[in-house]
């Protein structure tokens, strides 16, 4: 159907990696406040740095992102899902890679997300096991890498078709990637913001969320934990239609066979 290497990988261009002083101030001040609150309030959930106004930057206006996820006329639905899944995997993997040194077996002994959520890993036999966050995320990335490289599931060669279970496999990948994003927001947003990557993370989250809103791919029980961020970033769809200097490019990149 498609020749090797013909799959388009969506890329965000004009990613600004410059350090934002505002965010640095907010992060520093917020951490001080958070520690004070922690002392006062005891065991309630940590405050959410990612909901602070200075942290809500995003690289692309919502209008562009909505257009990004709309299925273009004549394009195969599975091919479209494959492109977005690959792009989201690449971006989430990259962002996690930048903060992975802070995500350790002792620092993150559980795979947690906001709302006191803890994720358990289901092994091949369907048995639930409690694993540390870096281990869980390693399982997610390994599983995803293996799946997207499997020619029988993500075909790139001529005459190879998508399997009938393709959409359910994509649902599983997106659910697992969502867990990784939830963990980054919950436990590592401070590091992300200090590296100046928060706008990029927000953009990837917005992409994942809009793709999900468009095609209903992730269970709402999974996404409710970041519902407040979703509302803060995408809530008011009427105010974000202003033109932006940021552009979005769809680039041809060879699909690797590794
Ligand atoms: Zn962690």
TrEMBL record:
Domain of life according to the entry: Eukaryota
Signal peptide range in chain numbering: none
Record Gene3D superfamilies: MOB kinase activator (1.20.140.30)
Segments of skewed composition (Polar residues): 246-258
Binding positions (Zn(2+)): 103, 108, 183, 188
Keywords: Metal-binding, Zinc
Region (Disordered): 237-258
SUPFAM superfamilies documented for this protein: Mob1/phocein
Protein name: MOB kinase activator-like 2
């Amino acid at each position: 159907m498609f020749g090797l290497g013909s799959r388009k990988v969506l890329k965000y261009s004009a990613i600004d990696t410059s350090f934002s002083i505002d965010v640095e101030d907010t992060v520093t001040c917020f951490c001080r406040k958070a520690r004070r609150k922690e002392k006062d309030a005891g065991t309630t959930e940590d405050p959410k740095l990612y909901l602070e106004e200075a942290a809500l930057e995003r690289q692309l206006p919502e209008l562009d992102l909505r257009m990004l996820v709309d299925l273009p006329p004549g394009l195969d639905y599975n091919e479209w899902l494959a492109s977005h899944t690959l792009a989201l995997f690449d971006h989430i993997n990259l962002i996690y890679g930048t903060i992975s040194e802070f995500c350790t077996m002792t620092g993150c002994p559980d795979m947690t997300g906001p709302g006191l959520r803890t994720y358990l890993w289901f092994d091949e036999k369907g048995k639930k096991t409690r694993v540390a966050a870096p281990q869980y995320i390693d399982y997610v990335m390994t599983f995803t890498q293996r799946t997207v490289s499997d020619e029988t599931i993500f075909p790139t060669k001529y005459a190879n078709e998508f399997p009938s279970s393709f959409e359910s496999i994509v649902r599983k990948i997106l659910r697992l990637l969502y867990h990784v994003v939830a963990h980054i927001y919950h436990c590592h947003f401070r590091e992300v913001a200090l590296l100046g990557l928060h706008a990029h993370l927000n953009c990837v989250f917005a992409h994942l969320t809009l793709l999900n809103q468009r095609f209903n791919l992730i269970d709402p029980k999974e996404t409710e934990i970041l519902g407040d961020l979703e509302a803060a970033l995408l809530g008011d769809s009427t105010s974000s239609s202003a033109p932006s200097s940021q552009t979005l490019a769809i680039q041809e990149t060879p699909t690797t066979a590794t």
